[in-house]
Amino acid sequence: MCTPRCIGQLACCCGSAGCSCCCGCCPKIKQSTSTRFMYALYFLLVTVICVVMMSPTVEQEMRDHIPFYSDLCEKLNAGENCSILVGYSAVYKVCFGMACFFFFFCIFTLRVNSATGCRAAIHNGFWFPKFIVLLACCVGGFFLPEQDTFLEVWRYVGAVGGFLFLLIQLMLLVEFAHRWNTNWSSGVKDNRLWYGALALATLVLFSVAVGAVVFMALFYTHSQACLLNKVFLGVNGSLCFIVTMLAISPFIQRLQPKSGLLQPGVISVYVMYLTFSAFSSKPKEMLEVNGVNTTVCVFPFNSGSESDKRIVTGVGTVILFGCHNNVAVLLWLCCPDDYDEEQTGGGQNVLYDERQGTIYSYPYFHFVFFLGSLYVMMTVTNWFHYDNHKIEKLLDGSWSVFWIKMASCWVCLILYMWTLLAPMVCPKRFEA
């Protein structure tokens, strides 16, 4: 019984067979899904390593509990207490290796339209050799010449890549909102229950958005301080109201009959989330009250104990990875999969669903992971405030993170507004 399973796992690690679990009771899995899961697993592994590298707490724990820690650092020529392997420069080098790995596969899989070729076989299998290549890329970053020049140049490359990743995520969010509304609106013709579901979803979304505005007005503004919070909360709330009215205006309805309240509801909730995240990322403001310096415009949770902050830092790291996977998942779901062929083995059954063609773009998939690597690098190192940064201080806030998130709000609104106005500006391109 063990022999077929061992052969299957060996074929997965060192051959082109689809990856699967050893347990035969696991549900069937498509090869395209298992492939993307494995790349996401690689990405998660490197992300965790980067978080550890930015954590003095982990470094101290290793120093205290590993007897040969200092000796090992000396043998590796990693400096005293492995100083070369920690800090923002180490994260830059590791993420450089991961970015090179995904960028190589982006180029390698260009114009791959069939899953039966040798390049597709390498993309879908050979996981152990690819892991060795990824490891070599990450380690190789520490041996680059002109380290100072590399870090300076790579910082700007990372910033551009991080912004592009955010832009793609915002574009996919707008596309998701339109598709959701189109699909549910189409169902109304056949079943009136879809109309109720559409109305309920719209009501929930706008209730959340309005509730978020009230929440931030109560906890993130102050009568004598936090002017930026007041201004941007008012601006973002007003812009959400404007795009909502625009979506249901008569001239937009003539151009796009299916335009309704669901799309602006999705956009408004996301913009309010980004606004809340931006306010939470802003450096704390102090106000003198009765001769005592008091932190204002901060939700009580942000001023909690160190244990609370550690918990939130961990949750934030998970959300960070989820953000990246969000984009990947949206990409995975964009293409239909019509053909399944079951491969039965000793373990989990694999459905080879790409026999007649790829169901997603291999190079685009790797390109998004390439940008995600840069986004993780910039986020973990606190964007442009990287000096002496620690992962435990991620919640203390910085102006660079604040402005990036605030700009993301406006880009999201502009993108959605353009999708509404584009048929009017360029009517020939949108004719049926």
What is the topological layout?
Layout (H helix, E strand, L loop, with lengths): L1 H13 L14 E2 H23 L2 H10 L3 H7 L12 H21 L9 H7 L2 H14 L6 H41 L5 H27 L7 H21 L2 H6 L6 H20 L3 E5 L2 E5 L9 H27 L9 E2 L6 E2 L10 H19 L18 H27 L7
Parallel strand pairs: 1-5
Antiparallel strand pairs: 2-3, 4-5
Helix pairs in contact: 2-5, 2-13, 2-14, 5-7, 5-14, 8-9, 8-12, 8-13, 8-14, 8-15, 9-12, 10-12, 10-15, 12-15, 13-14
Protein name: Serine incorporator 5
Family: Belongs to the TDE1 family.
Pfam families: Serinc (PF03348)
Read across the widest sheet, the strand sequence of neighbours is 1-5-4
Bin the strand percentage.
under 5%
**Quaternary form:** single chain
Q: Quick one: how many beta strands?
A: 5
Task: Identify the notable features of this structure and list them briefly.
single chain; 432 residues; mainly alpha; 3-stranded mixed β-sheet; two-stranded antiparallel sheet
Folded structure, characterized:
The chain has 15 helices and 5 strands. With 432 residues, the chain is mainly α. The chain has one domain (2-430). A 3-stranded mixed beta sheet has the order 1-5-4. It has a two-stranded antiparallel sheet with strand order 2-3. The longest helix has 41 residues, at 147-187. It is flat and about 70 Å long. The model is unreliable at 20-24, 301-319 and 332-339 (pLDDT under 50).
